[in-house]
Every structure is written in structure tokens, then in C-alpha cells.
Amino acid sequence: MKIFIILCSCLFLMQPTASAAPKKDRAYYETRGEIVWEITTDEKVIALTFDDGPHPEYTAQILKLLKQYEARATFFVVGNKVKRFPDVLNQTLREGHEIANHTYSHAYLSKKNNIKKEINQTEELIYDTTGRRCLLFRPPGGFYNERLVAAVRAEGYKLIMWSWQLDTKDWSTPGVNTIVNRVLKNAKNGNIVLFHDYIEGPTQTIAALKIILPELKSRGYQLVTVSQLLNYNKAVPVKID
Known about the structure:
Blueprint: H1 2-14, H2 26-32, E1 35-36, E2 45-51, H3 58-68, E3 73-77, H4 79-84, H5 86-94, E4 98-101, H6 115-130, E5 136-137, H7 146-154, E6 158-160, H8 176-186, E7 192-196, H9 205-218, E8 222-224, H10 226-230
Parallel strand pairs: 1-6, 2-3, 2-7, 2-8, 3-4, 5-6
Helix pairs in contact: 3-9, 8-9
């Protein structure tokens, strides 16, 4: 009997265990192409992005600077501001920039918020205002989970984040030099930079851009939209055994 029990125990221990579920971290989503933080490229290209607008004063000043330095950018707009400032949105498009979806009310990911409704409401406003559809979505605060990723994919968007080292945190008004140094010390090929064209109160972003834009241009960087940047993505060769 003891021998039988020992044999059964050994057989039980030898049974193959179910493989652990993959850890759904950045690498998981990045490998699957479901979320983009930055791209791999040998080309000197960087995408500038601006969240939370449009704003009649700040966005207009940013557009003027971008035009001065022949830069293109992607603006992740909030629906309730599109409703208030449709002319600014149309100006942004006329000047060659990209419009992307950032929810209607800047709603953070939670069970209480209907993210699909937030996305669709903003999409309808953008289309009614410009006649254009969006291709990209960015979640407020950069918060995401499997439910959000699936919802964004189902609505036909590409989910875009930003290069971790290039979150300027300009919304917190950390100081013009802090914003400038964060970008210029960390900028590399294929990066996505996070700015804001709307914050509550005075902005430091415009003053920082007056230093950042000419310096990036002098370093030979082409400043492009996110969709343009994605076209530079360098394919990783498949290993052949």
C-alpha cells in the first residue's frame, strides 16, 4: 500500500502543469503591437504630442511655433473642448497637424466611466467639425488594462502612449528649464514626447518650446506626427534556426 501511494504521488508530481498566463505588461502589449510607446528606427525622427486641448490661446501659440520651425505634431483632443473651440481644431488640421482622440471629458479608466461612449462621443464631434476620422487614441493619465485595449481595438484605433523619459510633466508647471532639460537630455530617434496644450492656469510649455524646437532642428531631427512616425518603424528580423 505504501509503495502504491508513493508511486501515485510521484506520478502526480510528474504531471505537466498548466503554463502560467503571460504577464500583461508593456512588453506584452508592445510585442503584440496593441500599444505604442515609441518606435525603433535609425532615422532622426521624433513625434511631438499635445494633450487636453484645444485651447484658443495656448494651442494657437503652439501652432505658430510649430509653423515657424516646420514641425508637425499630433494633438490628442478632449471632446468637450472641441465642442467649445471648433475653429481651433480646424486651424490645427489646416496647418498640417494630426488630430487624435483623448475621450470626451478626460475620463480616467474606471468601472464607472463608459470609455466606449467617451471615445465615440469625441469621434462624432471631431467628424462633425472637420469631416475627418481619427486613427489614434490616448487614455487620460496613460492608464490602461485589457478591457480598454480591447475597446480601443474594437473601435478601430491604435493606442498611443509616450516615451517614458519624455513625459515633460508640463501640466505641473515644473519650470521652463526642467521641461527643456527633460526633452533635450533624453531625446532619441523614434521617441514620442508628451506635452499639453491646455493646463489649468499659466503654461510654461510655450516658453519651453521656444528653446526645444530650434535645438531639436539643429540636431537634425525631423518633427513628425505619430502616424508619420509609425511609418518609420524598423521591423525586427525573424530569427531562423
